[in-house]
Amino acid sequence: MPEQSGEKSFDATPHRRQQARDKGQVAYSQDLGSAAILLVAAGLLKGFGPGIVNAAAELINRNVGEVGTLTGDRAILTGEVEKVLSGAGFALLPLMVLLMMAAAASSVFQVGFLFVPERLVPDFSRISPVAGIKRIVSLQGVMRLGFGLLKVLLVVSVAGIAIWLRRDEIMFAGALTVSQISMLLVEVTVSTLLWVGGALLVLALFDFAFQKWKHEQDLKMTHQEVKEEMKNMQGDPQIIARRRQVQRQMVMNRMSGAVPQADVVITNPTELAVAIKYEHGQMAAPVVVAKGAGVLAQRIRRLALENNIPIVERKPLAQLLYKEVEINHPVPDGSYAAVAEVLAYVYQLKGKKVPGANRRAA
What we know:
The chain is an alpha+beta fold and 362 residues long. The chain has two domains: 17-220, no CATH class; 240-361, secretion proteins EscU (name from scop), CATH 3.40.1690.10. It contains 14 helices and five strands. It has helices at 2-5, 14-22, 30-64, 74-111, 129-137, 139-164, 167-171, 178-219, 223-234, 237-258, 295-306, 315-324, 333-349, 355-361, and strands at 264-267, 272-277, 287-293, 311-313, 329-330. The protein has a five-stranded mixed β-sheet, with helices on both faces. Helix 6 (139-164) runs antiparallel to helix 8. The relative contact order is 0.09.
């Protein structure tokens, strides 16, 4: 039995999931982020690559075209090179920002917005050589190594296929101009990145699904853990059950004293029961002395029968009084006429009169 063996066969509770999330224990695939960045980079190169190549060529021609006429002044040459590098940096800055946004979007897609300050604190146990060797030789470490080798083999194979498909263009690149070679290089690079990125994306989706499954398995709880969490969250179930039993007993005791003093019990006919009491000259209006549903309604009916209290079936009135009137509170003005009619009927059966109730009803 799972309860006896301690097997984790129960799904994690929301509280346990939140605790794990607060500690940074979430399902996350690094490969999914890498594939997203690679595909975004390929898309950016496809859209902006030719423009960047032309801008770089123009920048080099403008700043380094006269290098041959320089008199050997190293400072002048260094300044020209710095201009080229700074210009290239400014040109590539928007692309780098977009790549960073893609990486952030990948993380948000997987785990949402999550900030764990504890992860910023250095954990010196992770730099222990013994712990590192144990992680490497563990089953999880071997599986991670195998998965890494599979990724390398996949990347090399897909990249080789992508380049092989354009082998004719590459072989005849010697007859092209420098500008045409640059454009071809961009096209081949983009094509290869798209192929590799697509293959990595498929692999990363499988990895993300595995990480989700493994995370769910790690979060599963034993029967004893579920009991302990319920005890911590809501209190000891035995104490709660005992408290409810005492409360029910108190209600029963109160009914045992109140129902025999009632004038009539209005029912629904079996689901609800409301005991009404009215003393002319002492009460301004009839008062609900007891009410209940289900088992409590049956208890009220039984007490009424044992004490010869009339039971009158008025379904809408019983529902209204049970819903709107608390115990030991008078009936509302809107229901007074209907209650007075029931009281008049009951007192008529007993050969009594209720002048005050009749006048109020009139």
